[in-house]
From TrEMBL:
Alphabetical keyword list: Oxidation, Oxidoreductase
Catalytic residues (UniProt): E278
Protein family membership: Belongs to the aldehyde dehydrogenase family.
Name the UniProt record assigns to this protein: Gamma-glutamyl-gamma-aminobutyraldehyde dehydrogenase
Length: 508
């Protein structure tokens, strides 16, 4: 019997430098919004220049959206929702379209990854997998889920039937950041569309290119006009207009705590739209002296803070090390930090790419300076490098002797800066781990199974890793506690945000 082999597509192939080189220098035309199935310029005609962090040069421009642009996109999403062109389409048909979209993302995986790297600076290897391939996987996953979601019949008393329906909420507004725009965007867009909603997406002003391309692919896959719209521009203009809209039903967001607070305010001042916020982190990564393999712990922990220049919300940015292994472990971490090859993110030989913008780079360096003023020692990195390229690169940085009350311990850097703090015993580790306002991710390295379970219970975070760091499978939810936010992306739990529960009573 002959077995039919699946056709080869780019997703099955190893990333090749020649393939990257063929597209890395392409001239990029200015981009408009994507509203009602087509690309349109801003109402005002204004544009925002996009600066590439690779070399500091202007890459292209995107429409600098106005309130009128956002209102137009919301109106388009609303009418698409109300006439049922997507919300009432048979689930099996919606499923077909989302799976087709996954295939188109795979077809364009390299172009999408390169586009994203050119405006945000993530190393291409990571962008290809974590952006393009993960986005394709996300659309496939939620596409597959559409026709497997059932309503419920409640166990009511008497002769009244209680039905529980999952109804799409209507218009979803999504605001996403510049790190992993395609991955984080897809975590929101795919389940929102799968549930039957229309969506208006606002990318970060400096990282819109791959998401604009995604919207075109959605149209090509058969998502009807008006169902998936993208409005580019400043958060303080189009983001605010979305937040204050009376016609957006749910707002989903990933970004800073400061913007998260504003969104809650906008909701309170408008229609009380539900807000799901995925905010920052200052995640503790705790190394006990009984860790099964300290060398492996150091290697994984270094990747867990330094990949993508530390611009990862779940980065293990606080390293807590038990006192008796502290000096050796910090030396090992510093060795890893110094060994990473930082460079042009479109070169496969670079293990770490660029910091996203000059202002981010300056903020990172300010954190290092303040930490030193507060008594910490810089044992690796601490400076800008490769400035002759014009790009924004920073050496992976290890700061030791950071105290709990220090700025670097309490506040998120969102850059390649690791804060190291020693601890005495388990109780001390828990106290230090829980000493910030954040609760997104954590890591624990120990051979003691009972201790691992106690730490899972005691550490206040939405995600915790034991003897690993950075688990990323789509089947497991991601979300924070405390001031790291609420609601979850990923897994079937993410669908809850995009449905209203509707109860129906029927007298029999
Ligand atoms: P970061 O520090 O990661 O840039 P931000 O919270 O500033 O985090 O940005 C995340 C997203 O929030 C971006 O798309 C940005 O444009 C948007 N944003 C920023 N300010 C506002 C605002 N006032 N209202 C709505 N969205 C905003």
């Amino acid at each position: 019997m002959s077995v039919r082999k699946p056709p080869l597509n780019k997703a099955n192939l190893m990333l090749q430098q020649e393939a990257i080189d063929a597209v890395r220098g392409q001239t990029l035309a200015p981009r408009g919004h994507f509203i009602d199935g087509r690309s349109i310029a801003s109402d005002s005609g204004d544009v925002l220049d996009i600066i590439s962090p690779i070399d500091g040069a202007i890459l292209t421009s995107v429409a600098a959206g106005s309130k009128a642009d956002m209102d137009r996109a919301i109106t388009s999403a609303r009418s698409a929702f109300e006439d049922g062109r997507w919300s009432k389409m048979a689930p099996a048909q919606r499923k077909k379209i989302l799976i087709k979209l996954a295939e188109l993302i795979e077809r364009d995986a390299l172009e999408l990854a390169v586009l994203g790297v050119r405006d945000n600076g993530t190393e291409i290897n990571m962008a290809y997998k974590a952006e393009s391939l993960s986005a394709a996987g996300t659309f496939r996953y939620y596409g597959e889920a559409i026709d497997k979601i059932y309503g419920q019949i409640a166990p009511t008393a008497n002769s009244v039937l209680g039905l529980i329906h999952h109804a799409p909420v209507g218009v979803v507004g999504a605001i996403v950041p510049w790190n992993f725009p395609l991955m984080i965007g897809s975590w929101k867009i795919a389940p929102a569309l799968a549930a039957g909603n229309s969506i208006v997406l606002k990318p970060a002003e400096s990282a819109s290119l791959s998401l604009l391309h995604l919207a075109k692919l959605a149209s090509e896959a058969g998502v009807p006009d008006g169902v998936f719209n993208v409005v580019t521009g400043k958060g303080s203009v189009v983001g605010e207009a979305m937040g204050l809209s009376m016609d957006v039903d749910v707002l989903v967001f990933t970004g800073s705590g400061a913007t998260g607070r504003r969104l809650l305010e906008y909701s309170a001042r408008s229609n009380l739209k539900r807000c799901y916020l995925e905010l920052g982190g200052k995640s503790p990564n705790i190394i006990f002296n009984d860790a099964p393999d300290l060398a492996q712990a150091a290697k994984v922990s270094a990747a867990g803070i330094f990949r993508n220049s530390g611009q990862v919300c779940v980065a293990g940015s606080r390293l807590l090390v038990q006192e008796d292994i502290h000096d050796d472990f910090v030396a090992e971490m510093s060795r890893h930090a110094k060994d990473f090859k930082v460079g042009n993110p479109l070169d496969l030989s670079s293990q770490i790419g660029a910091v996203h913008s000059l202002s981010e780079l300056e903020a990172n360096l300010q954190f290092v300076q303040t930490a030193q003023e507060e008594g910490a020692q810089c044992v690796a990195g601490g400076k800008r490098i490769l400035s002759e390229t014009g790009g924004y690169y920073m050496a992976p940085t290890v700061m030791s002797g950071v105290k709990v009350e220090d700025n670097l311990h309490q506040n998120e850097v969102f850059g390649p800066v690791l804060a190291v703090t020693p601890f005495k015993d388990e109780a001390d580790a828990i106290r230090i781990a829980n000493s910030t306002v954040y609760g997104l991710s954590a890591g624990v390295w120990t051979s003691n199974l009972s201790r691992a379970h106690r730490m899972i219970e005691e550490i206040k975070s939405g995600v915790i890793h034991v003897n690993t760091y950075g688990g990323s499978d789509l089947t497991v939810p991601l979300g924070g506690v405390k001031q790291s936010g609420n609601g979850h992306d990923k897994s079937l739990h993410a669908m809850d945000k995009y449905f209203d529960l509707k109860s129906a009573w029927i007298q029999l």
